Amino acid sequence: MAPAPGPPPRNPFRPTFGVSPTVLAGRSSLLTAFELGLAEGPGSPYRALIISGARGVGKTVVLNELEDTALRQGWVHLRAYPGPEMTATLVRTSIPELLDTLGSPTSRRMLTGGSIAGVGSVTAAADPAHRAPEPTLITRLREVARILAPRGAGVLITLDELQSADPGHLHDLATAVQDLMRDNHDIAFVAAGLPAGVADLLQQQGTTFLRRAHRVDLAGVAPAEASRLFADTAESGGRTMSAEAVAEAVRLSHGYPYLMQVVGSMTWAQANLQGADALTAGHVRKVSGPAVERMGLQIHAPSFQGVTGQQMRLLYALAELSPDNGPVRTGDIAARLGLVPNAISMAREALLRRSLVVVPSYGHLQFALPYAAHHLLAHPHLRP
């Protein structure tokens, strides 16, 4: 009797936000420059980076990869989180925990009026007259830098969703990083966010240092790199993907990193359902509709929440004039709405700040993400 078939090979594609893919495509030049910048020394421009890009283009994945690059060189990393306690969390929690792992003698915390089971109440505190100064972000980071210096290593600080950071906290963080850089400590800072939100935030007072940081605008993945990703990822999972299937997947995903993982993952699943050993163009075509629907559910639907009626009317006019997501003259959009071109300027600027549209050339608008027009036309109830 023939043995029962085993489970299908594990899906190597990862259509999950913020999770590094099995094969990274289109970002090798940035990672190489950053790696060189860490080895180069405090003067490298790649030690202060601002990464911007549309939703799902892979900003968080790039942060993950940059962190891994630093770790491979012996560096340590800290993650800052944009919230009301961003600076306080670094000073009171994240950096003390890092100092503990580095073996810093000053990181031990004192007990004050605590209770230990089986012992009772204990109190241990220094004489108030000889109390040490309250630590700051700068003093904490200097302590980390001093410990790492003999090891030839430094500290990388990363911040995701930069556009959501409080300007005051961002000023504190930027001042601390700049202060250590001025004294030739090994420190690097990388932040990522949506393009328009980042641009608005960097116009705030106290962000001069960040404005001088090297800007990296993440775009879609080129077809050749996308082809390599599909073929190599499938191979890493123990399957082949035909040249026709790769070409079909590249065409369907438009070089958009999140959609590339979705298309690959669903194609893999379709091959499982059909008991196939290889991924074919037929499998890709079979999942094209569901893949586009998932793009709408996971990316477009949240993006359109909170968009005003006038802005939605502009988006629907753009979708109707270009259902394939191509560029459209702003004059044609205004005419579609029965307005003069100047009458849509405020809505246009608001949509640009939301990163829902881009200006591909003077006097034109285009959806920032693939299949946005398809999503709107498939959901007429969103029309105001």
Brief characterization of the structure:
The protein has helices at residues 28-40, 59-72, 86-102, 137-148, 167-182, 195-201, 208-211, 223-236, 243-253, 257-273, 281-304, 309-321, 330-336, 345-353, 372-378, and strands at residues 48-52, 76-80, 114-116, 120-122, 155-159, 187-193, 214-217, 240-241, 278-279, 328-329, 357-358, 364-367. It has 384 residues and is α/β, with parallel strands linked by helices. Helix 1 (28-40) packs parallel to helix 2 (59-72), helix 3 (86-102) runs parallel beside helix 4 (137-148) and helix 8 (223-236) crosses helix 9 (243-253).
What does this protein structure show overall?
- This protein is α/β, with parallel strands linked by helices and 384 residues long.
- Helix content is 48%, strand content 11%.
- The chain contains 15 helices and twelve strands.
- The strands form four sheets. The protein has a five-stranded parallel beta sheet, sandwiched between helices.
- The radius of gyration is 25 Å and the shape is globular.
- About 6% of the residues have low confidence.
How many strands in all? 12
Strand-residue proportion: 5-15%
- Average predicted local confidence, pLDDT: 88
Biggest beta sheet summary: 5 strands, parallel
Strand order of the largest sheet: 2-5-6-1-7
Tally the helices.
15
Structural class: alpha/beta
The CA-CA distance between the termini, in Å, is 64 Å
Radius of gyration: 25 Å
